[in-house]
Each structure stands twice: as C-alpha cells, then as structure tokens.
Design goal:
This protein is an alpha+beta fold and 243 residues long. The chain is 49% helix and 12% strand. The protein contains eight helices and five strands, in the order αααααβββββααα. It starts with 18 loop residues before the first helix and ends in a 6-residue tail after the last helix.
Length: 243
C-alpha cells in the first residue's frame, strides 16, 4: 500500500449558465450594492438641497429657479458630513462605538454586509483574506465543507476558515492536514456568493468534479470503521436463539 499522501485534487470551474448569462449575473451582483449606495447618497443630497434652497432667494431675488451656488453648497455640506463621519470612525473611541452600533443595527439591514464588503474591496481598503477555495473533511466523515485557506502552517498543515450561511462573517476555523483538503480553481468571490446564497451556485462551482475523488484516505478509513461498528451493533442486537 502506498503510504504517501496523495496530492489534493484540483478542480477547474466550468459554468453551465453560459458566458452571457453568467456575465449578466455577476455584473448585477456588483452593481446592485453600488446602485443602493448611489440612491442613498442622492437621497441625502436632496434632503440637504431642500434645507438650503431658501437661501437662493437671498442670492438671486425674483427668480424661481435655485441659484447654481445652492448645488455647490449642498454638495459641500454632503462632503463635510461624510468627512466628519470618517473623522469619528478613525478615532479609536468612535470606532469602538460605531462597531457596536453596526453590529446591533446596521448588520440587520438587508444587503448591508454585501454593500459593506463590496465598497471596501472596491476602494482597496479591505481585501478578502483568502488565498484559495477548498473543500475539506475536517472530521474524516466523508462530508465536505466549503472553506477558504487563510494560512499555511507548514507543508502538510493548513488553516481553513469555513463560513456560515448566509452571513459569511461568522464561521469556524480548522487546522487540517493537506490530505483532507481538495483545492478548487473557483474564485473566492464566486465561492463567497454560494455561501451568501445558502448553497445556490455550488453545482456550477463544482462542475466536472468526480465525487469519488474527494473522499480522502482518512475519510475512507473512517467510513470503513463506522461500517464495522454498525456491523457489530447489528450482530449484538440480533435475537439469541436457544438450542
């Protein structure tokens, strides 16, 4: 029997939706949170604009149209408002209180987490701390979990984060040997969408995967052990016949 650990299986992504439909879907997922942000900024701008509009009668008496300075003033007030929020959040004391407020209220708003992650990644302030998408069997049971490599301890041991659905900010951390991991070629963004979609899109992410190949040596040994245990349980529970 070969005692060497077999190399993890690498799976290439093969979308069944087609290039056009898949591109439209991914474009929609990117533009949706950005569109919501623009709508919110537009709402705040219009609110400020209505407050400062009465000043137009002072700048240009006798005209019904708001003076062009009103637009600049409204935009400036909006910029100052955003700047002040940024100053408060940059402060350690303000950041702690904002985190509490965010966790208690904002995270309960639909799509807030998606918008937050999209904006931070878009401006480069935050990147996904994941290098690779994997399937792993941490308990050697034959049940695979979708995870992300967050660190490599050495050549044989990896640290994997397994997020919960549909909120990927929560999850579990596993330190597992290499032979229990199946590396995938799917992008972290696509894999994260399947998590937030509670598994939707997994078939596309695992397209072309030979299911018999993801059962690692450890899993097979555990399954055989369970089969033997079940056999003994069946024998023990069988009725005893008297001679």
């Amino acid at each position: 029997m070969n005692s060497e650990t077999s190399a993890p299986t690498v799976i290439k992504k093969n979308s069944k939706r087609g290039f056009i439909l898949d591109s439209l879907l991914q474009g929609f997922l990117i533009l949706l949170p950005l569109s919501i942000i623009l709508i919110l900024l537009s709402f705040i701008f219009n609110f400020i604009f209505k407050i400062v509009t009465p000043l137009s009668s002072i700048l240009d008496p006798g005209t019904e149209e708001p003076h062009w300075i009103i637009n600049i003033l409204s935009l400036g007030i909006l910029a100052v408002f955003v700047f002040m929020i940024g100053v408060v959040v940059r402060n350690r004391y303000g950041r702690v209180h904002f985190k509490k407020f965010e966790h208690k209220y904002l995270t309960k708003i639909p799509l807030y987490s998606l918008i937050h992650q999209t904006v931070y990644q878009f401006v480069g302030l935050k990147k996904l701390p994941f290098s690779e998408v994997v399937l792993l069997d941490p308990f050697r049971s034959g049940t695979m979990m979708t995870g992300f490599i967050t660190d490599q301890v050495d050549e044989t041991l990896y640290t994997v984060f397994v997020p919960t659905a549909p909120n990927p900010t929560n999850g579990n951390i596993y330190h597992v040997p290499k032979e229990l991991i199946t590396f995938l070629s799917a992008s972290t963004q696509d894999a994260m969408r399947t998590v937030m979609g509670m598994g939707t899109g997994t078939a596309d992410m695992l397209a072309g995967l030979n299911l018999t190949e993801i059962l690692t040596k450890g899993s097979l040994q555990e399954i055989k052990k369970n089969d033997v245990s079940n056999t003994f349980d069946t024998v023990d529970s069988s009725p005893v016949q008297s001679v």
